[in-house]
Write a structure and sequence with these properties.
The protein has 253 residues and is of the alpha+beta class. 43% of the residues lie in helices and 18% in strands. It has helices spanning 8-12, 16-25, 38-58, 113-126, 136-147, 187-192, 197-214, 220-225, 233-241, 246-252, and strands spanning 65-68, 75-79, 82-89, 98-102, 105-110, 150-156, 159-164, 169-173. Strands 1-2-3-4-5 form a five-stranded antiparallel beta sheet, covered by helices on one side. A three-stranded antiparallel beta sheet has the order 6-7-8, covered by helices on one side. Strand 7 and strand 8 form a beta hairpin. The N and C termini lie far apart (87 Å). The structure holds zinc ion.
């Protein structure tokens, strides 16, 4: 959003309340030395305008440098030594293999490396790069959703073989591996070190299995105690086949 730039003369011609309105409209946060003084409001607005111009002038595309961090198509975009974004290559995506992440969150994808670098530069200059991080929740939901299309095929100790029905790829998942980037073979995990959909699928699989184990089959005694309308068909069947042990009953009586 661009605002009109006020000259000192223009500001001096305004009333105190008009100055307060302008100050608020500009989103200024410069301290006003004396809130009853028109001159103080004028000074604050002028100071705010200067700080804005400075910010705009500070950002140019040339500030952004890209460094190959590991020789495996992983690049860091830096400004004054600070990482502002990362660009990586997703070998499993033929259409748009280059993706940009900000703090581990994917914010942009492209077929070309140079499109990704240009995008980062533009976003940096516009000051909007961090805004894309807000899509984080969205990305996570999508991963959870995508996990539903992953089938856990085999387990060998700590290793699981999973199958992605969508692209017919197989991956080995090691959920307990100490190194997060080694927990799955996919690019999502390997390059970004995030909990990918394959790991989520294995986690869901283990939780489901655990839930099955916890739901222990009730004993016949427990079934006899249940109100009859809570019994399932198979439980009815079990009760029908049940023959009370006379001797035990006699002892109990
Ligand atoms: Zn994975």
């Amino acid at each position: 959003m661009t605002h009109q730039l006020y000259t000192v003369e223009q500001l001096q011609a305004k009333s105190l309340s008009e100055l307060k309105t302008i100050y608020a409209q500009l989103g200024a946060s410069v301290e006003v030395a004396d809130k009853r003084s028109k001159a103080a409001w004028v000074n604050a607005i002028v100071a705010h305008q200067f700080s804005q111009i400075e910010k705009v002038e500070l950002r140019t595309e040339d500030d952004v440098t890209f460094t190959d961090i590991d020789g495996f198509y992983n690049f860091e975009a830096r400004v004054n030594g600070e990482v502002i974004a990362e660009i990586s290559h997703d070998a499993f995506n033929d259409e748009e293999p280059w993706y940009v992440t900000v703090s581990g969150v994917e914010v942009f994808r492209s077929s070309l490396w140079c499109e990704s670098t240009d995008w980062v530069k533009q976003q940096y200059v516009a000051g909007t790069l961090s805004k894309h991080q807000q899509s984080q929740v969205q990305v996570l939901t999508t991963r959870e959703e995508r996990a539903a299309t992953i089938e856990v095929l085999e387990q060998h100790g700590d290793e699981f073989v999973v199958h992605n029905c969508e692209n017919d790829h197989y991956y080995v998942v090691r959920p307990n591996h100490v190194e997060p980037k080694e927990r799955c073979e996919c690019a999502d995990c390997h390059y970004r070190g995030v909990k990918c959909k394959h790991q989520i699928a294995v986690e869901n699989y283990l939780v489901q299995r655990l839930e099955k184990l916890i739901t222990v089959t009730p004993s016949l005694d427990e079934l006899l105690d249940l109100p009859f309308d809570q019994l399932t068909a198979t439980e009815w069947e079990r009760l029908r086949e049940y023959e009370p042990d006379e001797s035990v009953e006699l002892v109990a009586a």
